[in-house]
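User: Please run a holo structure prediction.
Assistant: Happy to. Please share the sequence and the ligand.
User: Here you go; the ligand is adenosine-5'-diphosphate.
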Amino acid sequence: MIEARDVVKYFGRFKALDRVSFDVREGEKVVILGPSGSGKSTLLRSINQLETIDAGRIVVNGIDINDPATDITRVREEVGMVFQSFNLFPHKTVLENLTLAQVVVRKRSRQEAREKGLELLRKVGIAEKADVFPGRLSGGQQQRVAIARSLAMDPKLMLFDEPTSALDPEMIGEVLDVMKGLAREGMTMVVVTHEMGFAREVADRVIFMDHGAIVEEGTPEHFFTSP
Ligand code: ADP
Ligand code: ADP
């Protein structure tokens, strides 16, 4: 699903990604760990074309995303991304947040988009909030809406960039539960997180980054079992 080879990314003279190579197979759950500033976010953003890379190659679901001939919107449509901040549209209701892109990008009818939106809100356990504005929701609820909004585009791959880092501790579990549900359904997921319990429970593979490079890669057992 993802094939990254020798990816290099500079911000000015600062090398944020230093020859990063890794693969993610269909259905695989990969958790990326590493200290702040180690390049985790830049790597995810590069996969979703929010950053352009300076060298190397990233192929997502068979599409070479750095080939100038590639239609970026096609890649973005296949890759869902959830950020630390929920980025919901504040002046749209929860349900409208879910239907907008379906109608505009996916060209679904309003009725179809509403049905799909409501189904996804039920899935993340928040259907009763369909008609309220995001500002009325807790952080955990907003993040669940953000996940549902991504899913409304039928992504083949979901990227999560510290999805629980901005949440109060008591709300972290409800978001992780939604993510665990997605994992059980077989979604291909790459997750940057500091939640070690999630990594241990869900990850097929853990990647550890430091100073823009992958310094270790292995199973959760490899990382979390003391010798
Ligand atoms: P992480 O997600 O592991 O905390 P990031 O990928 O966000 O790390 O950042 C890696 C490094 O690149 C950090 O030193 C950060 O300050 C720097 N960086 C990230 N984005 C930019 C940018 N747009 N301009 C300049 N430096 C950046
Ligand atoms: P995250 O916690 O999601 O990694 P950051 O707080 O590191 O996000 O970065 C937020 C935004 O600021 C990103 O768009 C990132 O590219 C940019 N950024 C991060 N570090 C720098 C920097 N040193 N100079 C300029 N922009 C930066």
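Helices lie at 40-47, 72-78, 94-104, 110-123, 139-151, 169-184, 196-202, 220-224.
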